[in-house]
Amino acid sequence: MSRPFHLVDVFARERYAGNQLAVVRDAGSLGTAEMQAIAAEMGFSETTFVTGPPADGAWPVRIFTPAEEVPFAGHPTLGTAQVIRDHLADGRPETVVLDLQVGEVPVEAVERDDGESLWMTQQPPDFGDRLAHEDLAAVLGLPTEALATDWPVQIVSTGLPTVVVPLADREALTSIDIDRTAYDRVTGARDAKNVLAFCADPRDDANDLADRVFAPFYDVPEDPATGSSNGCLAAYLARHEFFGDDTVDARVEQGYEMGRPSLLELSADAGGDPVTVEVGGSVVPVASGELV
Q: In this model, does residue 199 exceed pLDDT 90?
């Protein structure tokens, strides 16, 4: 049985930028092992599988890295929602709800002056352990003074735990050289396998931050645009009042070191309970085909 699939670039302003995603439709009869094999064959950071029509308004979707299934990831959520709007749902709805392992995640299409973007409301964040700056400096292959030690290194999760690491400047960001031994030592006993390093020194003055995300555990040495980890970053920025108060409205660059320039929009509010987190960006279609 052939199954349609679509390739899209997420958090991109044009084709061949942002983060690549393969979305496989009509995947309900595929087993877990076959889905994993397809994800490894695609070789992108993630591949998603729409396993059926919506139940109670939510589309069932599974997400796989080349190495294993994950409960949530950001750019697959936005990219899959766009494919559902374009090819599966009636009337191209403004809001699509995905049923993921972490629960239901709504995605809303928003029209702005620079075009349409999709926004997802992530799960309320969990703020975990604070880690030693010197330990994460070792993971990143940097001297400890390259980190912004006035701010904590902390594990945050909105569905997929991430170690958030503040850096002093963009020179530190571009100088990262992951030490796999140190990475395994820090992440091995923890659920947090993604490491996000950020600085308040973007290339474009229109943006607020630049970051990079590394996930060797998932066979993703570096990710060009990471909605889940940037949601964790948004929660971190709001909780620690990085911009002077407990709200965040920021634009983040990612992927430049990989030749995949990406732009993510972050919104968070830590003034209430629970903390609210939203991440937005554009989705660009690239190709369609069939699995045979």
A: yes
Domain 3-122+282-291 belongs in CATH node 3.90.1030.10: no
Total-model pTM:
0.92
Q: Give, for 194, the enclosing helix (H) or strand (E).
A: strand 194-199
- Is the Cβ–Cβ distance between 213 and 264 less than 8 Å? no
Mean residue pLDDT of the chain comes to 96
Q: What is the pLDDT of residues 222-277, one digit of tens each?
A: 999 999 999 999 999 999 999 999 999 999 999 999 999 999 999 999 999 999 99
Q: Which of 14, 46, 116, 134 is catalytic?
A: 46
Beta-strand pair 162-166/194-199: parallel
- Which part of the chain is CATH 3.10.310.10? 3-122+282-291, 126-276
Q: Write out the two tokens for 91.
A: 């009337």
pLDDT exceeds 80 at position 114: no
Q: Identify which of 282, 290, 291 has the alpha carbon closest to the alpha carbon of residue 10.
A: 282
How many Cα atoms are found within 13 Å in the side-chain-facing hemisphere of 136? 29
Q: How far is CA 203 from the centre of its chain?
A: 20
In the DSSP assignment, the letter for residue 94 is S
Sign of CA dihedral 199, 118, 98, 46: negative
Q: Could you give phi then psi for residue 228, rounded to 5 degrees?
A: -65, -50
Tokens linked to 73: 């990831």
Q: How far is CA 164 from CA 42, 192, 194, 242, 283, in A?
A: 28, 10, 9, 13, 25
Fold (CATH) for 126-276: Diaminopimelate Epimerase; Chain A, domain 1 (3.10.310)
* 67 contact partners, CB below 8 Å, separation of at least 6: 40, 217, 218, 219
Distance (Å, whole) CA 36 – CA 59: 20
Annotated active-site residue 46? The verdict is yes
